[in-house]
Amino acid sequence: MNESTDVHRKQSLDQLSALEKFTEKGIDFLDNFNRFVRERQKIEMDYAAQLKRLVKSYSPKRKDEEEYKIYSSLRTFKGVLQEVGSIANQHELVAENMVQSVFNEVVKLRQELKKERMDHLHEAKQEDAHMEKSRRKLDSCKSQYRSAHEAWLQAKILFEKADSDDNRTKAEVERAKSTMEQKDQFREKQKNEYILQLKNTNEDQQEHYSSKLPTIFNKLQAMEERRITCLGKYYETYADCHKKVLPVITQCLDDIQVKHGQAVTPAEDSQALITKFETGNQPPKDLPMMDLDEPGGRGQTQAPEKDNVSIGSQNGANSLPGRGKAPKNKKGVFGTIFSSKKERGRLSGLWASEEAKDFSHLPPNQQKQKLQGKIDEIQGKIDQEVKQKEALLKMRDVYTANNSLGDPNSLNKQLETIGKKIDLLRLELNTYQKFMGHTAYKRNGKVVEFKDKADGKGGTPSQKSSPTRSSGPPANVPNSPSKERPPSSPLSPLEHEDSFIDDDDFDEDEGTAADPKPVGTCTAMYEFNSDDPNLLNMVEGEVLDVIEKDSGDGWTRVRRSDNSEGYVPTSYVNHL
Q1: H or E element: which one contains 454?
Q2: HEC secondary structure over 534-573
Q3: pLDDT of residue 310
């Protein structure tokens, strides 16, 4: 191997080693960039988690939810918290996009480049080994040719000496000549092999330096350019992960500024505060003067009249709606004080449960708001159940029309459960409507509202209510005037001085309610019991006369054989 060949081989190996190190650093940079993306993604997740914890810690507690509904400053702050929660979700989306669009793609690219680099380097080493093998074979052929040539020269010299020496026999000269000729043939053979190998080695060297090695270098270059190009795209994707959520974050901030910030109305909050704590009580009368100059030494004062403080009570704060006056304490004041702890606890629990149910411990206006809120809540539940029932009925009709879609009888159990739930909700609604001071009943196609007769109040006319809001049957209300209130007692907005009874429901001659004729019969499918005098208790299998069919309010008016009548849930009976 000549000196020029050694120099070129050394230079090519140095170049290959430099490329190997450079490409290794490039792949290591991908790992470095991926660690950066991972840490950046963790920062986004931690920030989103901190925002969510912040929103949760400042979100209204259950006891404060009512205030957040009525005050604009609190209601808008709740909206601000929702917007901050939305911003947190966007930061989570940024972190998720970083993992999916950048991190995972970099990991995939790194694996591909690592394998491709190993393949290219392995190919370069194979080519160098092939070239080195060719050179060694050439050196071997060259060495063999040199040895054969030297052996031929030695044999030639010996032949010439023997031929010129007269003392040698002809046989010895011929033997020397034969040896020389054999050495010459072997020399020619080695020379030809050397020439052939030299040709092959030169061709391999030409192909190695002009084709194979540059091709490998070009592949490594393409691989490196691909890595750099992908890095640029990953930078763009990294930025795009942020840019995609910026419009949403900007919209959230705009909503905080405009939708919530400008929606705070001090006048509305002030009015809401007034409405919440408005008692509805009349201002107290002027205090009477105590005239000490009158006979007796002291002036006489008039006891102030009691103020009513609940809608369902006409006897002061200690009366319960639907139960008349509170039981008197026969032991007197001291008897109550020194009564047993067990009895005092039982009584306090009784009054606490009643107050918690009808809100009679609150002033009239506040009691009205609480009761109305409860009524609206129950009515909303009823509306949801009714919608669900209507959907099941439509489904049953579809199954009935096409049995291949399903068995219509399979829905009966669900309809039965929903019907019972609706009946219980309507009974509960009826209870709170009585606490409110009225109950909607339907008589002869007219809707009339009556107050709880246990409180001794007369009926009051009201606007027509929808069938779903009618929660109970009509009551046999005695034709008696309402109890008069003291002049200083406030009247609930739902109460009026006049009483109302539909004259069509009474016989003009006898003054008693006329008995309508039955319009059909029905059978009780389930047992039904209620303490409401307007409802009729029934047992399973009992046959009843239908006086008035259900018009959509969920109640059917029926009569027993003993002429006792009342309302029962429609879903509890089967019309014959």
Answers
A1: none
A2: CECCECCCCEEEEEECCCCCCEEEEECCCCCEEEEEHHHE
A3: 44
Which tokens in the block code for residue 207? 């192909």
Q: Are 326 and 320 in contact (CB under 8 A)?
A: yes
Residue with tokens 């809608």: 311
Percent of the chain with pLDDT over 90: 30
Q: Are 499 and 458 in contact (CB under 8 A)?
A: yes
Structure tokens at 510: 């006898």
Residue 123: CA count within 13 A, CB half-sphere: 16
How far is 241 from 549, CA to CA, in rounded Å?
65
Would you say 324 and 452 are in contact if contact means Cβ atoms under 8 Å apart? no
Half-sphere exposure of 186 (CA within 13 A, CB side): 16
Find out whether 362 and 310 touch, Cβ atoms under 8 Å. yes
CB 145 within 8 A of CB 155: no
Contact 442, 470 (CB under 8 A): yes
Least Cα distance to 475 among 496, 489, 493, 457 occurs for: 457
Report the alpha-carbon angle 359-447-509, nearest 5. Answer: 115
- The closest of 137, 47, 117 to 89, measured between CA atoms, is 47
Question: Pick the residue with more confidence: 463 or 71?
Answer: 71
Query: Token pair 């003993």 is at which residue?
Result: 562
Give the DSSP per-residue string, 194-229: HHHHHHHHHHHHHHIIIIIHHHHHHHHHHHHHHHHH
Query: In angstroms, rounded to a whole number, what is the distance separating the alpha carbons of residues 519 and 544?
Result: 11
| Pairing state between β 573-575 and 446-450 | unpaired
277 within 8 A of 459, measured Cβ to Cβ: no
Spatial strand order in the sheet of 543-548 = 565-569, 555-559, 543-548, 520-524, 573-575
Token representation of residue 379:
């009515």
Contact 375, 465 (CB under 8 A): no
Whole-number Å distance between alpha carbons of 205 and 210: 8
In 3-state terms, what secondary structure has residue 520?
Answer: strand
Angle in degrees, 0-180, between the axes of helices 3-58 and 213-254, rounded to the nearest 10: 10
**287, amino acid identity:** L
Sole residue written with tokens 């002033």: 363
Residues in the chain: 576
Long-range residue pairs from 219-228, CB within 8 A, at least 24 positions apart, any chain: 219/120, 220/19, 220/23, 220/117, 220/120, 223/23, 223/113, 223/116, 223/117, 223/120, 224/22, 224/23, 224/26, 226/113, 227/26, 227/27, 227/30, 227/109, 227/113, 228/26
Label residue 374 by pLDDT band (50, 70, 90): confident
- Tell me how far apart the alpha carbons of residues 91 and 49 are, in angstroms, rounded to a whole number: 9
Q: Is the four-CA dihedral 469, 475, 479, 483 of positive or negative sign?
A: negative
pTM of the model: 0.50
CA angle 115, 119, 120 (to 5 degrees): 120
Q: Please give the Cα distance from 90 to 52 (Å, whole number).
A: 12
Compute the distance between CA of residue 183 and CA of residue 179 in angstroms, rounded to an integer.
6
**pLDDT higher than 60, residue 243:** yes
